[in-house]
Amino acid sequence: MLDDEQARELAARFPVLRRTVGDKPLVYLDSGATSQRPEAVLSAEQTFLTQSYAAVHRGAHTLAVEATDAFEDARRTVAQFVGAEEREVVWTSNATEAINLVTYAMSNATAGSNGAGPDSRRFALAPGDEILVTESEHHANLVPWQELCARTGATLRWVPVDDDGLLRMDTLDDLVGERTKVIAFTHVSNVTGAVNNVAAFVAAAKRVGALTVLDACQSVPHLPVDFHALDVDFAAFSGHKMLGPTGIGVLYGRGELLDSLPTFLTGGSMITSVTMERSEYLPAPTRFEAGTQRISQAVALAAAVRFLTDVGMDKVAAWEAHLGQRLAVGVSQLPGVRLVGPRPGQERVGLASVSVEGVHSHDVGQLLDVAGVAVRVGHHCAQPLHRRLGLTATTRASTYLYNTTDDVDRFLEELSGVRRYFRVDD
Known about the structure:
Blueprint: H1 4-11, E1 20-21, E2 24-25, E3 27-28, H2 39-51, H3 62-81, E4 89-92, H4 95-111, E5 130-134, H5 143-152, E6 155-159, H6 172-175, E7 180-186, H7 198-208, E8 211-215, H8 227-230, E9 234-238, E10 249-253, H9 255-260, E11 271-274, E12 279-281, H10 295-311, H11 313-332, E13 337-340, E14 351-356, H12 361-370, E15 373-374, E16 376-378, H13 383-388, E17 394-398, H14 405-416, H15 418-421
Parallel strand pairs: 3-15, 5-6, 5-7, 7-8, 8-9
Antiparallel strand pairs: 1-2, 4-10, 9-10, 11-12, 13-14, 14-17, 16-17
């Protein structure tokens, strides 16, 4: 596990963390939304852009070769980081696009797309088929499945949550049946910080031959993750939540599944031959990467992965679990403040969402910002979960490897004065 001194040393490598907000040192507790980037990542992208930038997979000149090598080396680096093969990593713009890729490809399988591979009918849906999600999903892993159901006539079902926002896993077996075709679920909740039981979902899916789709946006940046070991069929995550840039995400898919999955976007770069009547497509993953790619972003994401690898994901996970418990314990001791998710002592990542009685989360966030503490406010793209908990919004503090116990304590100190400031503590 890291310690405060090591976390401060890491923070010194992130330029933005040196700044102040007003006259207050910045305490950045919004990494669950977007993490900051170390100098090594900024430098890697700048070096590529100023020395080797060119289109990939197209030119024969020196810059094009160097760019292609860097682009594919990035794929290899990221694949190794998540326990995958190179051919199982598809570049996307973000995790939202990655999940939409799967849902639209399944639509194309249902329609009989020309871009379908062998055994593509396994992705087709019919009225009466079922897709299972959870009540705690981010909208990016809910709305695309709603739309797929609307296009195909399939039925959407979901695993409910309890009063703390934790999944009612006791309902899983009753919800999974012979018509279940997909089970899509988050690895770590972006609201509660709970780490969900992937093995239980995978076992339920295998029992009926359903596909599993994992939202790994809050797990890949914070936990050691091996998709082969988890045994999921598809997974999605974003670069900007793991020290990388925006505009780059990853869809992981089992090699044999990607080879059969119909194409989503079509055009240049993903074809082998084109006539006026029809086209033939390259194998995965290139068949899913139409058009000019996110080249410098992929290079920067690989640099972020190397940074995290050098630190050690086991150490990152242990440190954030420690910070998460400090958050949970501290919040639970504040009168009039409700902690969402696992209770103190229960497993959680370094994230805590809270509701302050009598004060809207936006007002809480603004008051914290005046004190230099940056947090996320709102429904965190999880409206159904908040509605189930009787909340319109929460205030979320989320840590990363560059945060210290002092950062957590500053958040707790400022949070403790919110109700007094707004005169609702009587």
